[in-house]
Specification:
InterPro entries: DNA_brk_join_enz (IPR011010), Integrase_DNA-bd_sf (IPR038488), Integrase_DNA_bind_dom (IPR025166), Integrase_recombinase_N (IPR010998), Phage_int_M (IPR053876), Phage_Integrase (IPR050808). There is one protein chain. With about 230 residues, the chain is of the alpha+beta class. Helix content is about 45%, strand content about 10%. The protein has a four-stranded antiparallel beta sheet, with helices on one face. The longest helix is centred in the C-terminal third of the chain and has 20 residues, at about 175-190. It is elongated, with a radius of gyration of 21 Å.
Length: about 230
Amino acid sequence: MALTDAVVRISKPQAKPYTLKDIQGLSLYISPTGSKAWHYRYTLKGKRNRVSLGQYPDICLKEARQKCEDARFLVKNGFSPNHSDCIEANTVGELVELKAKVETFEQFSGCWKLFKLRKLGLDNPYKRQSTAIQIERYMRIDLLPGLGSIPLNEITKADVLKVLRNIEMWGALSIAEKCRCWLNEIFRHAIAEGIIDTNPAAEQGLLVLPKIPFSIIRFYGRRSNQPFW
């Protein structure tokens, strides 16, 4: 069960140390002396590990969850949050060391997603997750199969256009437009971070295809085996 600010605040020390579990591997360690520390437990390369995320009340519950999310992102991409690969994400988007190691579109898009959700204030698991779910779904179905394994600085305009055309081919023009906007954001973000110099998604809006009549879309469906052209 997820922790609340009140539970964290009123928790008392006991004769032996104990932990209160939160979500996503985050927990609050309480010592017999009354000190409280945030811990994140994770599995990397088949081994269980734990990393400290700071002391309470210096780090509140919301901040601990943000740090936990950053640590989870590191683990997902094969980095240990316990040593020099670890980043201290004290401010929005402060993922400097990890970004220096990121190579593929899949890795950087995950970094961008974390930044975007936090910027929109949607990184709180108690808030509506429709945007996060939408990004995750379209990335998995439409963008990562074609771009995921390509190094970020090697993606060309032709690569981007091919992915977008594949979406448009099934009449999913609104999804293609959403993905086009996200791709533009991702590459602009990478430029701002100094990872790439050009945006291969720029000016893709000039190649938008005309909309398909709704009656045809309803007849075939987005994932049918019959393309629209």
